[in-house]
Amino acid sequence: MSFISQLYSLGLSGNVFTLCMHSPTGGGILAFGEALEPGLTYTPLLPSPQYYQVNLQSIAVNGQTLPIDSSVFGPSPSNFTFVDSGTTLAFLADGAYDPFINAIRAATPPSALPFTRENGEICFSTSTSIDSAFPSVELDFVGGAKMFLYPHNYMYYVKPSVYCIGWLRNTGRQVTLLGDIVLVDKILVHDLEKKRLGWMNYDCKLKSCPSTLTFSCFNHLIINNSKSLSGSQPINVTTARGKKYTNSGQSLHSITTTFTVVLVVVIYITLLT
Length: 273
Prior knowledge:
- The protein is α+β, with helices and mostly antiparallel strands.
- It has helices at 3-9, 94-107, 130-133, 180-183, 215-223, 257-272; strands spanning 16-21, 28-31, 34-35, 41-44, 52-54, 56-61, 64-65, 80-83, 90-93, 113-116, 122-125, 137-141, 146-149, 155-159, 162-165, 167-170, 175-178, 186-191, 196-201, 206-207, 230-231, 235-238, 244-247.
- A five-stranded antiparallel β-sheet has the order 2-1-18-19-4, with no helix packed on it. A four-stranded antiparallel β-sheet has the order 7-6-12-13, with helices on one face. The protein has a four-stranded antiparallel β-sheet with strand order 10-11-15-14, with no helix packed on it.
- β1 (16-21) and β2 form a beta hairpin.
- α5 runs antiparallel to α6.
């Protein structure tokens, strides 16, 4: 029932789509096709009727692998890891949560004062920038694929000088969900044809459009090849028919006029919701 599956069944697109979401202001790029950018890292997508499931094997903080049994991440019917752009934060398997939180606390300088909110979230008060106050994190997947994360990929802004860890405990379950907070500022390729997930760090910001995006803005952008949106970097995308397009945030080229109109409407509805 998914939109990409319907396009694929009609022969209008390959069974591949690419996301590039910007943090912290939101927005970004959705492309129906495979990104051709050099430097993409891939890991297999595991068979699953419901999720984009991957084989996460370990987590490292500041280069040190955490003492977590890899079976916590699966894959098994009850223990598994998946990516989900429809979830804002992330959820760690119950057995991985304490080692992760303890490692972040140990690697954070004394100037960042920890405290716990009423809802149980672990937070810090610091006058320094988030990237200098908190450690880097690395996700290691099967086959040697690594996803390198900045502090803003696991911390979120609450108010001036206050940040909270946005990876929550999945209480009583050994299921890890990697949501938007992990996936932002990356090209993320969902390749359902080759059954793999690809990523690389990228500047996904779209500039020059008003903060309240309108239908006329996207209609003019897509149908008339407007330059009303200007991304800082282009993304090269290929379609199922082997054609190569460049999406720089300035234009999105569709395979047919009908597909163009559908794409405009879907993007506009998504923004409104």
